[in-house]
Amino acid sequence: MDGTKEFRRYGIRLSIHSLTGLVNYQIIMIMRKILIISITAFTAALFIGCSDSDYSYTSNYIYKNDSSRDITMKSYNYANGDLLEDANYTFVIPAGKAHTLRFDTEGGFPYPFMWTSPTGADYIVISNGEKQFTNTRHSSTGEDKLFRSETYEILKNNDKKRNRTYQYIFTDSDFENATHIEP
Fold it and tell me: What residue intervals traverse the membrane (predicted)?
């Protein structure tokens, strides 16, 4: 027997060698398709994965004034032992209105008032013209609520788009135990 077999029904005469060649050809074609798909996927991944900047995280901080008087917020930073006002983050919020600060950072959402300088704000004074209270970043007496994100209400949280909106609401009760301002 020479390794040939006749398939009388189909009128085909094949040898075992030609069947082996046919199987090898099919394997080669499958491997070729896999290689083409792999190269295409790898090339696409290179272009999709390339970015010229790190991810940007957007935080919107809304400071809403639900008190009966206009309030002023002033941010201060320590520099060389001196307490300096940060003019960029000093603002007035009329009664019944709100003030929004928007910040884009890289690597994660910033804590409140950490965006005012490379080290963040150290001291915040909130005044209604008659009384004032302060918040200090590292307060041991609990006067740090403006620096703690858990004291803010999260209005919008879209981690997929790296966008959050926080809100802090001032009321008249915030000024009940505040210090009177000397004229």
Answer: 21-48
